[in-house]
Amino acid sequence: MANSVCLSKLKILHEFSARLKSPGGADVMLRHLKYNGMIGYGAGSQVRHSSFRSSPQFGHIDDHPPVEIAKNPPEWKFVERLLGPATVPAPKAQAHYPSGWRPQQIDAAQRDYFIARTRNHMIPVYLESKFRGSKKVTVVRKIEGDIWKLEEELRGVIEKAAGRKIISRINEMSGQIEFTGAYVNIITEYLMDKGY
Predict the structure, then answer these.
(1) 115 CB-near residues (< 8 Å, 6+ apart)
(2) Taking 50 as the threshold, does the pLDDT of residue 175 lie above it?
(3) How many other C-beta atoms lie within 10 A of the C-beta of residue 115?
(4) What was the pLDDT predicted at 3?
């Protein structure tokens, strides 16, 4: 490394020898050496540019060392081992799951309405906070089919559990139902019991 740096300095010195003889040539050479990191603080260290625009141009491809591109190098198996799966794997079929999770029944798509599972195989029921957390809204998403019938059933279940009337809002275009209040567990349990 030191020899190559010395050789590059000698080449530059040889190029500027003619300029040295001219008036002000030494100053030009000194500025060039400092600018390129040949002398002074950080000499021989790598220059790091702050952005793409301030970095030097790539130049011709022959000026750079050759690079070997391998389609499937033998070391790749160690990298693949660390990568996660591209998709969430399907859960293994069991009679009972420790978390209480239940898979969707096969005949759920043939009913009046259908609620698709998320990519993590969960029921799409979410709790949202509005007005800086002062209002809780339970949202059921990914609904297809008769959304009005589902809203009527869910409102009846929630009102029975809460013991009061609740406010709901249906968005037929996006397939969502919103209920004012925190009823995620009640809705999720009801939909799982129905096989969704």
Answers:
(1) 108, 123, 124, 140, 142, 143, 144, 150, 191, 196
(2) yes
(3) 22
(4) 45
3-state secondary structure of 144: strand
CB-neighbour burial class of residue 138 (10 A; exposed 0-12, middle 13-18, buried 19+): buried
The pLDDT assigned to 157 comes to 96
Residue 134 Cα to chain centre, angstroms: 30
Q: Cβ of 168: how many Cβ atoms within 10 Å?
A: 18
The strand pair at 135-140 and 143-145 is best described as: unpaired
Phi, psi of 5 (to 5 degrees): -65, -45
Listed in sequence order, the residues at least 6 apart from 135 whose beta carbon sits closer than 8 Å to its beta carbon are: 129, 180
